[in-house]
Amino acid sequence: MQRALSVSRVTGNRGTFPDWYQAVVREADMAEVSPTRGAMIIKPWGYGVWERIQQTLDRRIRESGHDNCYFPLFIPLSFFAKEAEHVEGFAKEMAVVTHHRLKLIDGKLQPDPEARLEEPLIVRPTSETIIGDAFSRWIRSHRDLPVLINQWANVVRWEMRTRLFLRTSEFLWQEGHTAHADAEDARTETLKILEMYREFAESVLAMPVIAGEKPENERFPGADNTYSIEAMMQDGKALQAGTSHYLGTSFAKAQNIRFQDEEGQLSYCHTTSWGVSTRLIGGVIMTHGDDDGLRLPPAIAPRQIVIVPMLRDKPEDAQVLEYGQALVKALQEKFALGEPIRALLDTKAQRSADKRWNWVRRGAPIIVELGPRDAAGGQVTFMRRDALRDGDKVKSQAMAREAFIEAAPALLAEIQQALYDEAKARLDSNIRSDIATFDELAEYFGAAPADEDEGGVFKGWVRAAWSRLTGAELEAVEEHLKALKLTLRNVPMDQPETFGACIFTGKPGVEEILIGRAY
RNA sequence: CGGAGUGUAGCUCAGUCUGGUAGAGCACCGUGUUCGGGACGCGGGGGUCGCAGGUUCGAAUCCUGCCACUCCGACCA
User: Fold this and answer.
1) Sign of the C-alpha dihedral computed for residues A258, A124, A189 and A88 taken in this order
2) What is the DSSP code string of A314-328?
3) CA-based, 20 to 30 A from A506: which of A38, A152, A292, A448?
4) Nearest 5°: phi and psi at A29?
């Protein structure tokens, strides 16, 4: 590990990176495991983050011409049979509804055999099939195109092993689905969305990513091309944070999505689909969290400035509260990052010290402590969550009330930028491009010291030239990589002019690809 | 589904080997002293010891079966 990430300050114990992650999810009040296998309960603070993600991304989706709509949670089984690759990709993780009634049989409540469904229903793992079916009815003429829609929904994928936010059997996401008259239009859409995701991840989540195309074997089932944004977590692993697929005409053919062009000819549409999920929240935690808990970028913090009044059950409490209420009101009238500041006066009946640390753990960007001295002197004492400590000491600063109110918008923007800069520096300095052969790759990633259970050794990624392998050759390489727990992440969009030899075959390289361990 | 490990209070865990009737710290409730850097004293509430059988006078502890979770594989946004 490049950085000592223990769970010491959060739980009082040392542990691995996954232990730390779970501790932060719990201590920051983000989510908890539910009685339902593999599914999570997203708590108010965590859901608040998701709502911020929804609001900011939804605006971008709308501004780029897409409309929201809603399709059913259940999809008839037969819909999946239409696209062979697609069904194969998802068949192993589908939840199936087979009955519509329960009955007491031998004292046990169970599905009533008489209430078996004629055709089983699938709880959607993704909605290409049912949306494509609608497209086939909606689209008749080239004048109907393009169709640009999006839905915010929950989906279910029956995963073997789950982890809060990163992989849960049910998760929340948005899925965009579009249909176009030709390949060029659809490809443009696919890349436009990829760029939208990149910009969103970097400017809203403060999470630097690398946008690129997935190699053949990592494609979405049924897609012609799959693009992703990949983020680097603090243990050096990659997190696929968003995907955008060009589906060609395969779904259109499977579902008969056709239109008449200007000449009266019938043609198949070219379709795309794209999505980001609650996994983004896991990415935010593993990008910005520290030993004190979560650090939230102000753009997605449900509360950006939290004011903790130092109350002591004394007469001057009233003045402190009054002073705090006025401060919240003044802050709410200010705009930061394009929106009214989200400020809160925490009046919960709890020790001030506890409240303060709870907000530290939850990652509120600015935590203000207001005491009688502040109220009397017209000043504000606060700490920045992005730079909480100076050594072991908590760093706080004081400002005149008016100056603080004026400075708040810029301060929040500065925190947003600081979190991004920190993550960006980590990403940039941990991609090695001086590894040219498979042996070197194996040596670099393989030499993991025995303290693997201390969270592993931070290795980051390798960026190397390759000859865009496909088919059996690609599979063979993947097998070798698997032994090292490595995967091909993506081929970054920005590529140099010339390339070295392929890291796997020694043949002339045609592009550069990212290699790393992944979630 | 394969390999390993773990299930005891909200959390972290001790107790299990060697059977004797449920513990600690933190959290929670009451109270007093405190309070501007994760307070302290006193008092208190909370657990069918993962579930089901079995052995035994007696089971958290021994035996059998099952379930769940964690980590490593396989799968994946």
Assistant:
1) negative
2) STTHHHHHHHHHHHH
3) A448
4) 60, 35
Q: What pLDDT sits at residue A447?
A: 57
- Residue-wise pLDDT tens digits, A196-206: 999 999 999 99
Mean pLDDT, to the nearest integer, of A78-103?
83
Strand ranges (E), A215-285:
225-232, 238-246, 258-260, 266-268, 270-277
> A404 is written with which tokens?
């603080």
- Residue whose CA lies closest to nucleotide B76 C1': A159
The residue with greater pLDDT, A6 or A444, is A444
A113 CA from B53 C1′ (Å): 30
The token pair at A463 is: 């960026």
ipTM associated with this complex: 0.82
pLDDT, residue A340, reads: 97
Domains recognised in chain A with CATH numbers: 8-288 (3.30.930.10), 305-411 (3.40.50.800), 431-516 (3.30.110.30)
d(CA A435, CA A444): 9
- The Cα–Cα gap between A485 and A516 comes to 8
* Structure letter (DSSP) for residue A395: P
Round to whole Å and give the CA distance between A18 and A41.
19
Give the nucleotide nearest to A291 (CA→C1').
B38
